[in-house]
Structures are given as C-alpha cells and as structure tokens.
Amino acid sequence: MTTAATTERQSAASYGFADLPDLLSLMTGAEKHGAAATSTLDVLWVLYDRVLRVSPDTVDAPDRDRFLLSKGHGPMAYYAVLAAKGFLPADLLTGFGTYDSPLGHHPDRLLVPGAEIGSGSLGHGLPLAVGTALGLRARGLTDPAVWVLLGDAEFDEGSNHEAVAYAGAAGLERLHTVVIDNASATHGWRGGIAARFEAEGWSAETVDGRDHEALYRAFTAPHPGRPHAVIARVEPKNA
Length: 239
What we know:
239 residues; alpha/beta; Rossmann fold; five-stranded parallel β-sheet; globular; disordered N terminus
C-alpha cells in the first residue's frame, strides 16, 4: 500500500534546483527578508542534495547529520529545499507566515519536519552547533557531521567569536560552518571572515556562493582534527 508520506517523497524526487524558484513563488505575504532567503538558496541545495546524510525517513536517527539554520530570518529558501526533498508537503508553502501555518517567519523545530533548532535570533546558531558537536562526541557518536549556516552579520555578535575560539581549541572535527557573506556585517574583518576562523585553528575556505561545484568541493574538503568553515560569497545585500 502506498502511504501519503511515500507519495509525497516520490513526488519530491522529481524536484530539481531549477524548480526552487517556483516553490519560492508559492510563499507570499509580508516577508521582509527576501535577500536573506535568496542568498542561501544555492548553499542549501548543495548541502541537502549532495552532502547531508539525512532524509525524511531519518530525521530522528541517532547517526543522522545535523543541520542547524542559524540564519533563520527569511527562511523561504530553507522551506523550499525541505519541500523539494520531501521533508514537508509542497502545498504547505502557500500558507507561509499565516496564523495556522507551521511555516513561520522563523523556523520552529517543533513544527517544521527536519528542523533541528528554532532559529532567527542572530548569534545563537553557532554556539548551539558547538554544543551539538560536543554532545555527540560525549555520546560516542563520532560519525554524524554537524552543519550550521550563518550570515556574515551574525559576527557582530560576541557569542559567535567565543564559539569559534572554543571549537578550534576543542578540535571539533565534525563541526562545519557555512557563512553567507553578502556584505551585511557592520564592521567586517581584517583579512576576511576566513582569517577569523583560521586564527582559532579552523580549516577555512572562501568560495563563490553561487558555484555549486566550488561549494561541493569546499564542503567535502578534508580537515583532520579541525572544525571546518566555508565562506560563501554572494552578491551584496544592498547592491
């Protein structure tokens, strides 16, 4: 017997990257973070299509990879990719941001299938990812990878710098950070964002955030004994 969930996953298998604009167009309303959403689209697609070891069937499996969306404001691209991959029905997208929809302007881990954290408040996602990586290591789960997606403006928050320093010192090899750099940080960093990670013992690489092959190579680059950061540069927010 074919269940509704199975049917949804089968239909999701037909979605590709070219379908994401159509899925995004289903989400209308008073969303004010369009640039925040579109800046993450390519990174999210490459991660969910080619890198992350998690599926609608394994969202609760202990050995799944964990993806934490720290850049939770403007989550339309995140919802579109989750729908394309069968984590949630695509018809939910039309209710985005409405009173009775599970798809709010900030993701809620209790309402959105596959969401690991409730997010949107800048500066807390990387510390949560550090704690997740530490918790997995303490439980002897050394295989799952932890991924967290930040915006460059989140480095205006001191909590992220503390997390970067701690993760490097602790050698959290299974921790991976992707920073979307759309030139929205208040201060910026001398030598670029990657230099901030490298100074704390991380492996770090800066790539074109729209180039899927470059993103994939950076995401899968070896980094023995060190956490890994990928800085994905996209067009400036206010260009």
